[in-house]
Specification:
By secondary structure, the chain is mainly alpha-helical. The model has no long low-confidence stretch (mean pLDDT 87). It has one domain. The protein contains three helices and no strands.
Amino acid sequence: MKYGCACEDRHASFTPLCISTNGLMGKEMEFFVRRLAESLATKWDCQHSTTLYWVRAKLSFSLICAVKYLCLRIPS
């Protein structure tokens, strides 16, 4: 694994967050998003479902912008 040595040095683990082109998340990614939304909902004193929707929307738009930027930078 590419990051295996760096993770072992820090006594950590590396889990890639996978998402498909049509928006389906891997189980690790889904767990990460839910945990993040749970933490933010507690911090912001909001409903978990509203925060989960917000996190997914922000993530989707961020990925779209990143892909758009990469596609525009590829030389013809």
